[in-house]
């Protein structure tokens, strides 16, 4: 008598001697499994499978079983040997891991929905095109575009360092504050003075935030901006592409309040803001879809947006194209 079988089943040796193995059979196990089992071993083949049994106390346990037919010199089956491994705890652990993964996925989707609910875009499709591709469920890129009461336009793009929960929450917190302050501000300088002392509290010791904040005046002749850690944003003015480089360092919890710069351009066609994901990819097929190429040829924007969205990226990709229609 196998001592391990006695231990697992809960029966004593006396209770098991002379009894059929059906004493531990789980009535919920499909009979088709046992039919297949007997057909296999009677055909002198080895059967392998997973079987649920019942202990003496009625609780279930699961074994991974292999049953070998033993043949005599004439090739006849004389007995069967069964090797079983108790996998009950392994299956229970696997089930718990699946439940935890499902719960985590559910929570991440809820977080993603909350993040996306905070995105504002007051522009219609004739004025603005946005491509936003998150590399994972919790994106580190965040943006919004506002039409202000006085006729000016304010837009921002922030990119949290790294991926996952921490930068996503930082970006979400700062974007939420922006959404609260933006409609009451008189200038971008006023907005930054309100925002940055509070935003510092959300940044970890080595965490940093790249950003562009841009205000276009009601006459659409001047741009006031603060930018740090981002590639230049682009302004198309006739045949000229003007690159506006960052005027600050990336924002960290010890950074000074960013400075703002104003430039004047009487007539411009469009602007393009973008995060680093589109430039730092390693896919040669996307080289023709770089921001400078797109802003030079706006007729290709919708087709480009569609093609770019078909590719996978290691980092979040955000591109904002704003057309001067006034």
Briefly note the CATH topology name of the largest domain: Phosphatase 2c, domain 1
Order of helices and strands: HHHEEEHEEEHHEEEEEEHHE
Structural class: alpha+beta
What is the radius of gyration computed over CA atoms, rounded to a whole number of angstroms?
33 Å
**For the largest beta sheet, what order do the strands appear in spatially?**
4-13-12-9-10
Strand content: 25-35%
* CATH architectural group of the largest domain: 4-Layer Sandwich
Query: How many structural units, i.e. domains?
Result: 2
How many helices? 8
Distance between the termini: 91 Å
Mean pLDDT across all residues, rounded? 82
| CATH-level-4 superfamily name of the largest domain | PPM-type phosphatase domain
Biggest sheet overview: 5 strands, antiparallel
Overview of the structural elements:
By secondary structure, the chain is of the alpha+beta class. The chain has two domains: 84 residues, Beta-Lactamase; 206 residues, PPM-type phosphatase domain (Phosphatase 2c, domain 1). It is 30% helix and 28% strand. It has eight helices and 13 strands. Strands 4-13-12-9-10 form a five-stranded antiparallel sheet. A hairpin with a 2-residue loop joins strand 9 and strand 10. Helix 5 packs antiparallel against helix 6. The mean pLDDT is 82.
């Amino acid at each position: 008598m196998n001592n391990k079988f006695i231990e697992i089943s809960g029966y004593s040796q006396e209770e098991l001697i002379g009894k059929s193995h059906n004493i531990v059979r789980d009535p919920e196990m499909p009979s088709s499994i046992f039919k297949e089992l007997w057909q296999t071993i009677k055909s002198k083949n080895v059967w392998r499978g997973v079987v649920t049994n019942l202990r003496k106390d009625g609780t279930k346990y699961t074994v991974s079983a292999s049953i070998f037919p033993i043949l005599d010199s004439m090739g006849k089956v004389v007995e069967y040997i069964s090797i079983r491994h108790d996998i009950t705890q392994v299956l229970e652990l696997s089930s718990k891991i699946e439940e935890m993964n499902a719960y985590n996925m559910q929570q991440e989707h809820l977080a993603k929905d909350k993040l996306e609910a905070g995105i504002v875009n007051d522009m219609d499709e004739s004025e603005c095109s946005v491509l936003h591709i998150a590399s994972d469920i919790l994106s580190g890129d965040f943006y919004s575009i506002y039409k202000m009461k006085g006729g000016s336009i304010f837009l921002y793009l922030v990119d949290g360092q790294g991926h996952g929960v921490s930068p996503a929450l930082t970006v979400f917190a700062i974007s939420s504050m922006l959404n609260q302050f933006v409609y009451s501000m008189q200038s971008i300088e006023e907005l930054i003075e309100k925002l940055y002392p509070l935003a510092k509290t959300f940044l970890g010791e080595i965490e940093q935030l790249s950003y562009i904040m841009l205000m276009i005046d009601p006459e659409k002749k001047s741009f006031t901006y603060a930018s740090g850690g981002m590639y230049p944003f682009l302004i198309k003015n006739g045949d000229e592409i003007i690159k506006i480089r960052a005027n600050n360092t990336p924002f960290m919890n010890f950074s000074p309040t960013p400075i703002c710069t104003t430039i004047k351009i009487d007539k411009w066609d469009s602007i393009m803001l973008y995060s680093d994901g589109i430039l730092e990819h390693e896919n040669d097929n996307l080289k023709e879809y770089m921001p400078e190429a797109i802003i030079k040829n706006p007729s290709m924007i919708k087709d480009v947006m569609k093609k770019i969205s078909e590719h996978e990226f290691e980092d979040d990709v955000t591109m904002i194209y704003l057309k001067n229609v006034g």
